[in-house]
Design goal:
The protein is an alpha+beta fold. It folds into 2 domains: 94 residues; 101 residues, ATP synthase, E subunit, C-terminal (hypothetical protein PF0899 fold), CATH 3.30.2320.30. It is built from 5 helices and 4 strands; from the N terminus they run H-H-E-H-H-E-E-E-H. A hairpin with a 4-residue loop joins strand 3 and strand 4. Helix 2 packs parallel to helix 4. The termini are far apart.
């Protein structure tokens, strides 16, 4: 075989081998591309799922926050409504006509005294307005009930907001209107809320 033919054969073999390599490379590229598309689709779905889950989580968070804020606003509004009821009750108590006001003071003193020897502490205005016979009448009622009937007016006055304080040797009984209303609120707040809102709910806190 001549040299030219040998070279020709070598070139043909080389071209065939090159073609094989090229075709294999193209198949590998195609396979990689296909795998990449599959992976890309998987990643896309994964990201989309995560995004959807995050969106749903955030939606639920927003709803929960909104419900909490709405509940807080409702509770605040209810509390304001209940507050107004007791504030109005206190205002009416403080605004009683003089004769009725004295009757209330008398009842508070008679019910609040334990020994019959306490000092009666009043607000400055009430002490000035108290009729001279007021204390004598109360002590007489106490004696009829079997108590000493030795109550006396204290020289001390306090800004009570109505009502009295009975000061004994060891204890004080706070029968001021604000203190009485606070006690009434503890007992009646649930009932007031039921009347206002028609529900069996608890305190308007």
């Amino acid at each position: 075989m001549s040299v030219e033919k040998i070279v020709q054969r070598i070139l043909e073999d080389a071209r065939a081998e090159a073609q094989k390599i090229l075709e294999e490379a193209e198949r590998e590229v195609a396979r990689i591309a296909a795998d990449s598309e599959v992976e890309a689709e998987r990643v896309r779905r994964s990201v989309l799922k995560e995004a959807q889950e995050e969106a749903e989580r955030r939606r639920l968070e927003i709803l929960a926050e909104a419900r909490l804020k709405a509940r807080q606003r409702v509770l605040a509004a209810r509390r304001r409504a209940v507050d107004r009821v007791f504030e109005e009750a206190l205002r009416r108590l403080q605004g009683l006509p003089p004769e009725r006001y004295l009757e209330v003071l008398k009842r508070l003193i008679l019910e609040g005294t334990e020994t019959g020897r306490e000092e009666i502490v009043l607000s400055p205005d009430d002490r000035v307005k108290l009729p001279p016979s007021f204390l004598d009448e109360i002590n007489e009622d106490l004696r009829k009930r079997g108590k000493p009937g030795e109550l006396k007016l204290s020289e001390e006055t306090r800004a009570l907001g109505g009502g009295v304080v009975l000061r004994g040797s060891r204890v004080e009984v706070n029968a001021s209107f604000p203190a009485l209303m606070e006690g009434a609120r503890r007992d009646l707040e649930i009932e007031v809320a039921k009347i206002l809102f028609g529900e069996a709910g608890g305190k308007a806190e």
